[in-house]
Each structure stands twice: as structure tokens, then as C-alpha cells.
Amino acid sequence: xxxxxxxxxxxxxxxxxxxxxxxxxxxxxxxxxxxxxxxxxxxxxxxxxxxxxxxxxxxxxxxxxxxxxxxxxxxxxxxxxxxxxxxxxxxxxxxxxxxxxxxxxxxxxxxxxxxxxxxxxxxxxxxxxxxxxxxxxxxxxxxxxxxxxxxxxxxxxxxxxxxxxxxxxxxxxxxxxxxxxxxxxxxxxxxxxxxxxxxxxxxxxxxxxxxxxxxxxxxxxxxxxxxxxxxxxxxxxxxxxxxxxxxxxxxxxxxxxxxxxxxxxxxxxxxxxxxxxxxxxxxxxxxxxxxxxxxxxxxxxxxxxxxxxxxxxxxxxxxxxxxxxxxxxxxxxxxxxxxxxxxxxxxxxxxxxxxxxxxxxxxxxxxxxxxxxxxxxxxxxxxxxxxxxxxxxxxxxxxxxxxxxxxxxxxxxxxxxxxxxxxxxxxxxxx
Length: 431
Known about the structure:
By secondary structure, the protein is an alpha+beta fold.
């Protein structure tokens, strides 16, 4: 059983730590405290969680004991959330939310324990926007929301199917939470789970007012020969560094722009990034491990330069006049789009160098390009997947615990040489 009290003390609001060997036991950080929770799926396959106590008042041993009791209760057919809800109702009576707005504002606090800070903020933003756009629904008591009302909310947003689908999922989750927590009358139906299920399908992104469908965009070598020299001459330093790290390392954008000085270290075989497991996309899986990325060449130069000029530990930040803030992946995505010919900003520009010569790509296409180039130079499949941080399948992960560190070093070095040969601004020899 592994639990690092130092990591627990440094846990940021919206993040959490998993306790290995205790499936579902986690320490969740909010703005004011850290809470032990037990997270599980009920018999219907719905995700639920129950609070066990606060750390450090409740020690690890006490949390494990409480977790064991809840788990044993589930084995005996007692659902922890339902049991706690019934006990609370018997003691205090139901604290039913008076309006949909009140329900969702209560759900906002619940979201903070389920998602990282950025994800929780975006989810609440979508719900808050819906409340402002639907004042009649916001004033309605949750138990009085009709199927027709719920349908109307989603039907109005058919032209934005991806956003409507996410909103439907959030509202369904909020209603489930409200029913479990006694915020909604237990007899009230959850219309959101069944309405328009499978009917909110996106036709792909829109470029120039037209649907272009779904495409897994990869930049060709000819496009990279145009993009790399142009980017060096025209992109901001933060954006250029981010673009190059996408290509050199294959890391996710959320990982690149969340890099901190403590994630970078020099080891016996060279420099490495060790990105912590609890911040990874797969952090909910108990067997997720730190993502390790070797550094050399220009990638190492970029990281070392940013480490030496870091602000409060962040390698990527923005601002001026002493007022700084972290530079996020979404900032980079917006910046890249502003360079595309179809963007409103690009249409107002007059200089040729201010419009990207390679069109119709997003930051994630850079990561996909790095993975595709690895395959093109005959990188083994399992090594390529390890390089970009994909988890192996369940059975493979159960038996193959190899870390691929040496192979990552070899194949990322070969990828770097390929990219150097495509960049007219750099020498092609490996000095």
C-alpha cells in the first residue's frame, strides 16, 4: 500500500491521490480541505462516491478501515450512498432543492470532487450558460420539470450536437446526484438520461461555414518543411516551444503546458520529464503510473531554458508587468486557430507572415503527427504507444510491466533526427 504524505500535503484543489491496493479509495483536495472518499460503480453501472472523513484528522489506517467497511457492505448488498441518504432523511427530513438553479449550484460543489479544477470549471460554465438562457427552467422546481421541458432544452441545441450531448450528460448526472442526496423528490424522473439518446451526432467540424466531416489530421513531411521555418520566424516564443515539444515528445498538450520544474530531473542516463500519474488523463485508473519522457537535443534546450526562467514553478506562463498566470493548452489552441486563414483575426491581418502557410490543423494533430512519424521509421507498436502515454490493454497491462525507458530514448532520438532533417533552420547532421 503506497501513500506519500508529502504529495498529499502538496495536493492542489481539484486533484486527488489514489491509494494503491484499495480500489476506489482516494484523497480528494478542495479549496479548503482534503477528504477521503470511496468511489465505486453501483449495480446499474453508475459511478458514485461516499465521503469517509477528512485528512489528516482521519489517518490512512482509519481511512482504509472505513473503506473496508463500505466495501464489505456493498458485498452484502448495501449501497453506501443509498444507506447514508436514508439515514440523513430519517434524521433531518429531505432538504429538497427549491429550483433547478439551486440544484445545479449544489451540484457545482459535488463536481469539484469528481473532476480536476479546469474540467469542473468548464462543466459549471456550460450549466450556468444554460440556466441564463433558460430562465423558466431555472425557476422551476426539479420535481416539476416535464419531459417536454427537458426535450425543448436539448432540441434547441441540435445545431451544436457535441455541446448538447455534454450538457445532457451533465444534467443527467446532476439529477442522479440530486436523487441520491435527497435534493429531489425520489419519485421525480430523470428525463435527461433517455431524451435524444443517440440522436445528438456531430457532422464534424465547420470550416468556412461548411461541414468538413471527421478527419484524423496528420501533417505530411512536406507540410512540416513549410511549417517549422515559418513557426520559428512568426510564432510567439511560448507557442513555438509548445509546438516543438508536441513534435519532439508526443506528449499531450495538457501535459506540456502543465510542466513544472519538479517534473524535470537529470538521471544517470540523461534528462527526463516525469509527469505525475495523478495529473494524467487516465488518473482514475488505479494502475496508472507516471509518464516518463526522455529529453535531448532541442527539446532539452527548450525545457532547460524554461526551467531557468520558470514562474512559481511553471515552465509555461503568460502575462506582463509582474502579473503572470499559467499558460494553458486552450490558450495555445486559440492562438493556433487565430493563425488560420479562416479565423476572424487572420482576415483582419495584412502581413503574409502572420497567416500560417499550413492550414486545417489543430494542436492535437501535432501529437498524432509525432506518433505517425514513429510508425514511419518502424518504431515497434508497444514502444510507440508507451512514448505517447497510451495505456496498454487490460490483459497486456496485467502481465507486461516493462517501462520501455531505454526504447523511448532510442526512438525519440530517431524521431528528433527526422524532424531536424525537415527543418530548414537547423543543420541536418547529428553533431
